[in-house]
Amino acid sequence: MGQINLTQVTKSFGDVNVIPPLDLNINEGEFTVFVGPSGCGKSTLLRLIAGLEDITSGKITIDGQDATNLPPSKRGLAMVFQSYALYPHMSVRKNIAFPMKMAGMDEAEQNRRIEAAAKALNLTDYLDRRPGQLSGGQRQRVAIGRAIVREPSAFLFDEPLSNLDAALRVGMRLEISEMHKRLETTMIYVTHDQVEAMTMADKIVVLQAGVIEQVGSPLELYRAPRNKFVAGFIGSPKMNLIEGQLASEHNVHTIGIRPEHIDVSTSDGAWKGTVGVAEHLGSDTFIHIHGIPGCDPLTVRAGGEVDVRHGDTVYLTPQAQHIHKFGVDGLRVD
Amino acid sequence: MARAVTNQRKAINTLAAWAVGLLIFFPILWTILTSFKTEATAIADPPVFLAFDWTLENYEAVMERSNYARFLWNSIIIAGGSTILGIIIAVPAAWSMAFVPSKRTKDILLWMLSTKMLPAVGVLYPIYLIFINLGILDTRIGLVIVLMLINLPIIVWMLYTYFKEIPVDILEAGRMDGASLKSEIIYILTPMAVPGIASTLLLNFILAWNEAFWTLNLTAAKAAPLTAFIASYSSPEGLFYAKLSAASTMAIAPILILGWFSQKQLVSGLTFGAVK
Amino acid sequence: MATQHSRSAARFMMAPAVVLLLGWMLVPLLMTLYFSFKTYLPLRGGDLGWAGFDNYVRFVSSSAFWPSIQATLIIVGGALIITVGFGILLGILLNQPMWGQGVVRILVIAPFFVMPTVSALVWKNMFMDPTNGLLAHLWRFFGADPVVWLSDASLFSIILIVSWQWLPFATLILLTAIQSLDGEQLEASEMDGAPVLKRFWYIVLPHLSRAITIVILIETIFLLSIFAEILVTTGGAFGTRTLTYLIFQRVLESQNVGLGSAGGVYAIILANIVAIFLMRIVGKNLDA
Q: Are B245 and B34 in contact (CB under 8 A)?
């Protein structure tokens, strides 16, 4: 249950092609994250899988069956929307019951599932309230509850945490991950936040302009990005991409080195530069350095105890085993 | 405005506004008052304002002798029927324009609005002929159809604007939850659009109730609504001001009350949203 | 969202409204056009054959034509000036801080909801009647002879009645537009030293120009076709026979359908010209 395959799927809105031919396999039980900058087509892709938009060409199969022309209700999928999309005129109980009512389920079973979901999501006290009377986090849970009771073959999440404040976001992230471990159901999750992607995913799909740049586990993407785009997208702060003289020393067009893989010293090192801005977080220090040819500014992550100021001279040594190489075409060179 | 408005200025504004308001409202007020006078008092010179013997004789006279109830009933059926029929036809149309817009949606909407600009007198005779041939001249159903057609553009327009305010993803959530189109409209769309549908109903009921071209030309004894009934007072016999006032008060009172509730919709409904 | 599924559903759901309005527009229109090219006198022989453009020529060369255009222009123009002019003033007044604003609004808006036959008859009898009307009483109070409104000042009387009915509409719309004017703009100009009248002329009026245009266009369309008010007051006499009333008489009273239809076509063309301007403004708004 929950095996989804996309074969040569394209999507155009009128004359504008937003997704060129795309192939993707989502395996049963996987937590797959679609990630990418705004406008990269991740939400569109999710909606194509959900059936809320038609595919222009290509095929989608769900659990071996051709779902390309099936309406959303017949695909056995459940979706949690960014705005939660709760029915404002129905109570929480009725909201959660709605899909079961549409499926003609008998009332006893409906109530059983509602109670179970409410307990799992801490909603038991709110069952008779209306969405308008709930907080953002509570509404989020109702949306999830409404999806859970359908016992779908896969859950689709469309940037569900974007509307929550930072603290709530971290908490909900953990809850969704735990939910996945418990239910073991396929989940497809769309976000523009690469931290969410890295922490929650079994598999990440990085998209840009409708094209899949790379598919892999979080650590694979971190350690072996296929091209400059993925290299710069995954990891925070962004990987430093250096061109010019320093790159030609390695016989390539561009080299990349992550801020956490550069050693800082005030006395000696391979490269010399001047501190621009130093951000002291206590746990870490992010130093932005000017004067390195081919990369300005260069970002370095150092320990919290490192104390450099604007204008200081620093010496940097990149850790050799962590240098990434990219050719003229932006692709990885090994 | 951060400055405090002086009470003096407020008082002047209040005085001026109330004076103008009462002046404008006066004809209506006078009509209501006159409806409770005797015919003799109604034409008294100097005119009597409040100090007279209030009587209900005019109301009795109008309701009994001229079969007022039939005219009232005709107005209700024609105004109500045309509006409800209009809403039934307009809801699906407005749904598709609001939620599945195409490149031509805007043009179709504008075209619909433009049909309201058609001068009635230009098509009077053909409609007259068609009605005679179909046997629906001087029938309520005939008028229900005509008034529905002339108000349909406004009904579609108003429902369209209310539907547009409903977030699409709530409807999509419904689809994901397995709702068919019919279920979507019944369980999700309509409950959320109830206030909008009510406003539309209200305004168009009022417009149909007051319509005074087709109701005057397409009806005679059987289907004449209140507009035509009042028109019959244009060449009366004997003293009739008080009776006219009573008939008028009964004809306009319900609409004045309904009208108060539909002020906001009046602006956006009748200017087709060009003024918000 | 749009899938093939919902798109075909949409087309199906729009069909009744579109088909009905299309029929409503085309069928009578084509018939009117047809009749306009015929000599058709139902009471005097019926269909008497093709007339070509005769009816069109006869309509505009009839002695009643230009007076009807005149009457129409005077009534529409007069009503527009009064409703827009006073509408602006009333709108500004109602926008001021005061007590009981809600009630004043109701008082001012009420006339719009009174059916045309009631307004016309109430004005005709209870106000304008030269013997028993209130205005007659008032004139006599000041020692003057009462005005026989509907025969001596007929056009003005009609304008008065119609303006009374439409003033609320103009006021409501202009009030809405005034309320949407950003108070800070006015404050800034005040700080720049502009006196009240200049503030009105340079800031308020331009902001209102769009609303004024819309009021003028919509009122014109409705005013061109006023009917009941004339029917129950003057019956078209004393120079109040507007184009609409003239056509009505040709068609239903003298039953010269061909001639009346030609007149109807003229009226339709006239209304469409105004409608084009109005639709352009509405269309621009729809894009927003």
A: yes
